[in-house]
Amino acid sequence: MNWEGPFQLRDLLENSTTENYPWPPADKGVYLVSLESWDTAPTKACIPLYAGGNTGKSDRFCTRIEDLVADMVGFYDGGTGHHSGGQKLWEYCNKHVVKPLDLFLGWDADITCPRCDEIELYEALKPELNQKRPPQCSEHQG
Fold first, then answer.
1. What residues have CB less than 8 Å from 94, skipping those under 6 apart?
2. What does pLDDT average to over the chain?
3. Which residue from 13, 108, 125, 130 lies 20 to 30 Å from 43 (Cα-Cα)?
4. Is residue 87 left, alpha or beta, with left meaning phi > 0 and alpha meaning psi from -120 to 50?
5. Across 15-80, where does the E strand assignment appear?
6. Strand order of the sheet with strand 48-53?
7. What is the pLDDT of residue 135?
8. Could you tell me which residues are beta bridge partners of residue 105?
9. 22, 49, 76, 126 from 92: Cα distances, Å
10. How far apart are CA 91 and CA 97, in angstroms?
11. Which residues sit opposite 107 in a β-bridge?
12. 133: how many CB neighbours lie within 10 A of its CB?
């Protein structure tokens, strides 16, 4: 995997209009939210909280992260949320008195199969808030 980041969420958002600042791509990616930063690639030492990706063929990876962040900071109510992982992160932050914008987010977009890479990431790190292993890849039977 070839990781971009991690970025403390507050820094990523503050630099959303900064020219040439790294930004999630439109499609084919996996991401990780962690409590601590990491070097080069995430390990269990970064305290992985949630991993996910864009497993469809649509250009929704960046939008998926948008949904994650909106729900992670509590912008959902009455069944209007779009990302169960974001809601779990908000609950985690609330329970552990952690500011959501202090968490770290990184992504890998240099991948061939988003589902297979999401499974690999999950298996390697077992993020605390992922309740189950991602479904197997229908194309590669992973």
1. none
2. 90
3. 13
4. alpha
5. 30-34, 48-53
6. 3-8, 104-108, 30-34, 48-53
7. 83
8. 7, 33
9. 27, 9, 15, 16
10. 10
11. 4, 31
12. 11
DSSP one-letter code for 44: G
Instruction: Identify the residue whose tokens are 């969420």.
Output: 9
CB-based contacts of 98: which residues, under 8 Å, 6+ apart?
35, 92
Question: Is residue 60 within 8 Å of 94, Cβ to Cβ?
Answer: no
Tally Cβ neighbours within 10 Å of residue 116. Answer: 20
pLDDT for res 91: 94
3-state secondary structure 72-121: HCCCCCCCCCCCHHHHHHHHHHHHHCCCHHHCEEEEECCCCCHHHHHHHH
Q: How far is CA 131 from the centre of its chain?
A: 14
* 104-108 and 30-34 strand pairing: antiparallel
Residues of the chain with pLDDT under 50: none
| Amino acid identity at 11 | D
